[in-house]
Structures are given as structure tokens and as C-alpha cells.
Design a protein that fits this description.
The chain has helices at about 5, 20-30, 45-60, 75-85, 110-135, 160-180, 205-210, 220-230, and strands spanning about 10-15, 35-40, 60-65, 90-95, 140-145, 185-190, 245. It is an alpha/beta fold. About 45% of the residues are buried. InterPro entries: NAD(P)-bd_dom_sf, SDR_fam.
Length: about 260
């Protein structure tokens, strides 16, 4: 680790951090002493609430950026904002993405373009911009891309979303090779079924789905955040180019949430 890293607070840029998995990751990193820049698409109230919590509960700095990362210029603008706001960036977490499911017969070009822009091009550009910054600053940085268990297991109507998550997984492996000479590590965390909404109306669905997962529950944003925090830390300093699947064993038997299975216990 460079002298510059050890003499200042560690920093992280987390995209899609206004709610759900991204918010959980941002809060976990803040609890570990990171100063943050967080990005969101169109949830200013939620993003500002997360930033306020980071400042008040953990005493960390948090800068908020709003923009649609599907727009070609926006990832570059976000990278420049984060570097200026934080000075240096030790960790990049590419979490933001769009979820759309359509069978191949009804999959239209506009949907494919939006998925490509948000779920593949944006993290690729951010990896490019932030890794260049890390290398120029001599930082042994960590990049974590949030993919999906769907990158490994095919589902109906999932050719675009799951296919692009698989592409990002594969691209991350090449990026890990490209950046290894700079001491920059690139890894993925692949969530399964994660409960990102605290809505009582959805609770029966979550409970029923949880019974069909080998570990007998749905995941929480905190489960993903723990994996990201480990990959961001020195504890994983010999880990690069890999994917940690955090899904409770969901895809091991196939697609249990689509089957008639009533449980694994």
C-alpha cells in the first residue's frame, strides 16, 4: 500500500446507492471508516437520506451525484466528480443497473440499449476512468462489480439482463489481468434473491420464496455489503478476477424459485 493511502481516510465510490443493495454497501463502508461518493439516478430524497445517515451515524464525508449512467457521457462525469470531491478513490463499487425481463420474441431494441448502457457500458467506463486515476496516484485499489447469479444460470426471459451480467463477469476477469501490474484488484459479487424492499405487502412473497432457497431465507443488502467490504479490504489482497456468489445456494439445484419445491429442510 502506498504512503498516500496510509496517511488519509480510505475512500469509495458506490453507484446506485440510494436504496437496496447499493445503500447497504455504502453504509457498511462508512461504518468501516470510508469517506464516500454515492451516485443515484432519480431518487434524490433517498440518496440524501443515506448521505445524512453516513455523516451523522458514522462521521464520514458523503458526496451525492445524480445522473443517468445509461447516458454515454455520464459515467465519465461521475468519475470526475468523485475524484474532485474525494481527492483519491481507493474503492469503486459498480452496483447501479437496470432490471428488465422479456422473452426473446418481444425483446425490443430500446430495452436492449438501455440495459447495455446501464449494466455494461457504464461499469466498463467507470472501471477505465477510476483505474486510470488509481494507477496515476499509485493506489492499490479495489474494484467490485455487482453482477448476478443469473450470470451463471439461464432463466426464461433473461437473455439481455443475465447475458450482460455474464458479460460484465467475463470483462472483469480481463480487467483484473490488465490492472494487476498496478496492484489494482477487480472482482465481482453475484447476488441471488435479495430482499431490497421493506414493504409489508411483499412479505408473504418473500417468506414463500425464502422457503425455496437452500439456506431457507432471502438475502439482505447487508449480506452483499459484507462480501463487498471484504473484497475492498486488505484481507482479500491476494484475490482478483473472481466472483463471490452470495445467494444462499439458490442456483445450486437449478431454479427453485420457478419450481414447485416447498423447501430444502
Amino acid at each position: 500500500m502506498s504512503t498516500g493511502q496510509s496517511s488519509r481516510n480510505r475512500t469509495a465510490l458506490v453507484t446506485g446507492a440510494s436504496m437496496g443493495i447499493g445503500a447497504g454497501i455504502a453504509l457498511k463502508l462508512a461504518s468501516l471508516g470510508y469517506d464516500l461518493a454515492i451516485a443515484h439516478y432519480a431518487e434524490p430524497d433517498e440518496a440524501n437520506a443515506i448521505a445524512k445517515q453516513i455523516r451523522e451515524d458514522y462521521g464520514r464525508t458523503c458526496h451525492v451525484f445524480q445522473g443517468d449512467l445509461a447516458e454515454p457521457q455520464m459515467p465519465g462525469e461521475l468519475a470526475a466528480f468523485a475524484v474532485e470531491a474525494l481527492g483519491s478513490i481507493d474503492v469503486l463499487v459498480n452496483n447501479a443497473g437496470v432490471t428488465r425481463f422479456k422473452e426473446i420474441q418481444s425483446l425490443d431494441v430500446a430495452v436492449m440499449d438501455r440495459l447495455y448502457g446501464s449494466n455494461f457500458r457504464a461499469p466498463m467506463v467507470l472501471m477505465q476512468k477510476i483505474s486510470t486515476h488509481m494507477a496515476e496516484q499509485g493506489l492499490n485499489g479495489s474494484i467490485v462489480n455487482i453482477t448476478s447469479s443469473r450470470a451463471e444460470r439461464a432463466y426464461p426471459g433473461d437473455g439481455a439482463y443475465g447475458g450482460l451480467k455474464a458479460a460484465l463477469t467475463r470483462a472483469s476477469q480481463s480487467a483484473a489481468l490488465d490492472l494487476s501490474a498496478h496492484g489494482i484488484r477487480v472482482n465481482c459479487v453475484a447476488p441471488g434473491a435479495i430482499q431490497v424492499r421493506n414493504n409489508p405487502d411483499w412479505e408473504p412473497h418473500f417468506q414463500e420464496l425464502g422457503k425455496k432457497i437452500p439456506l431457507s431465507r432471502m438475502g439482505k443488502p447487508a449480506d452483499i455489503a459484507e462480501a463487498v467490504a471484504w473484497l475492498a479490504s486488505e484481507a482479500s489482497s491476494y484475490v482478483t478476477g473472481t466472483t463471490i456468489r452470495v445467494d444462499g445456494g439458490l442456483i445450486l439445484p437449478g431454479m427453485p424459485e420457478r419450481s414447485g419445491s416447498t423447501g430444502w429442510n
